[in-house]
């Protein structure tokens, strides 16, 4: 696969401005001419190897940040938005989208916000009989989507909260487990912890100062819920300060994000960054060993692995996704070039959907996306029983994966033939933006392609993609 040129003008300009340097001084320190730096900042030229090395040597810059961040996500999100039939007549080329994401990220975000508002308005008009007369019939993004995008564009890593959780879980001189630390912290606040035979995972009675945890839940779930309550009681100022910076558009979004940050703290305390990263590398990311060592569930471990993006101490860049039985994505994050559909389900050729057919087993898949990038994907079903007869069982499937260039760090890549191109299954992101012309699972035609319909022929699809 040809080497992809690195255009990172916005990140380069942002770095220079953060350092308080003029273009002339910055160019001098990087060992390039002023016109050359100007061209790189405006994405007229790719960032050279000389500049990458100088950034690392002169400023201690984590050069992996040049190839990550919002640009790839925004390009993927814009492509999906432009797959909307309203844009079908004259969609802009991919090169224009990349330039917009790199040179005008604020404009790209404004476009995505506008399209999201349009979609919500369109959906409300489709059910006008219900929307008429309702006080909440307004054109603003759904709180859930707004919060999901907040974490998405933060790389699913919240530095201040992550460090706070690590300090909580590893106090100086302490040799106890995080569950005992949490219980002692609650006790110091006059709060007792009690098990209750109830379907509610957690209930905090403020009047009696009692935290009730469900005896029906798994031990790792009870520990997580205890840590979540600790976060709500002890980290309120930090969480509120983070929410102030996010500037959510509604109180509902802020409330959802607050719980999201509390959940983030709980996961980061259960699996402290430094200790967890070291264990992940030592075990070559064996999910079962990590789950047992940290008293966490497989899903919690997978989610935590996708957050290991601390500057200067990054782990393997993983993608993580959870889908329900209808194929709807309920959790998504990617620190890789692979991005997920914002609307609808994931590619049906992806092994995450087959995980429902093989409960309790890990499925491995070598996959290749239309851009030629190859991945190793690990999928497994996750069942969440209700804890009593007749209680509904919630069933999901999760997938964790990374580019094959990191396969040496994964125990799950052992004995797979990574050199055989035919071993990689073709997958996509969303049918409307997938460029494959011969996919037998295609549900709708791709964007930017002409269709040919021949009445006298019928192949797998009722049309041919030109």
Task: Describe the fold and architecture.
By secondary structure, the chain is of the alpha+beta class. Among the domains are: 9-67, Orthogonal Bundle (434 Repressor (Amino-terminal Domain)); 70-139, no CATH class; 140-270, Arc Repressor Mutant, subunit A. 41% of the residues lie in helices and 13% in strands. The protein has 17 helices and 11 strands. It has a 6-stranded mixed β-sheet. A 3-stranded mixed β-sheet has the order 1-3-2. Strand 6 and strand 7 form a beta hairpin. Helix 9 (143-153) crosses helix 14 and helix 12 (219-234) crosses helix 14. The longest helix has 22 residues, at 105-126. 33% of the residues are buried. The model is unreliable at 129-139 (pLDDT under 50). Belongs to the short-chain fatty acyl-CoA assimilation regulator (ScfR) family. InterPro entries: Cro/C1-type_HTH (IPR001387), HTH_RamB (IPR026281), IrrE_HExxH (IPR010359), Lambda_DNA-bd_dom_sf (IPR010982), ScfR_C (IPR018653), TransReg_Diox_bact_type (IPR050807).
Mean pLDDT across all residues, rounded?
84
Run of helices and strands: HHHHHHHHHHHEEEHHHHHHEEEEEEEE
Shape: globular
Biggest β-sheet: strands ordered side by side in the sheet: 5-4-8-7-6-9
Q: Counting H and I runs of at least 4 residues, what is the number of helices? A: 17
Beta-strand portion reads 5-15%
SS content category: alpha+beta
Helix content: 40-55%
As a whole number of angstroms, the C-alpha radius of gyration is: 24 Å
In the CATH hierarchy, the third-tier topology of one domain is known as Arc Repressor Mutant, subunit A
Q: What does the main sheet amount to?
A: 6 strands, mixed
- In the CATH hierarchy, what is the class of one domain? Mainly Alpha
CATH architecture of one domain: Orthogonal Bundle
Protein name: ImmA/IrrE family metallo-endopeptidase
Keywords: DNA-binding, Transcription, Transcription regulation
InterPro entries: Cro/C1-type_HTH (IPR001387), HTH_RamB (IPR026281), IrrE_HExxH (IPR010359), Lambda_DNA-bd_dom_sf (IPR010982), ScfR_C (IPR018653), TransReg_Diox_bact_type (IPR050807)
Family: Belongs to the short-chain fatty acyl-CoA assimilation regulator (ScfR) family.
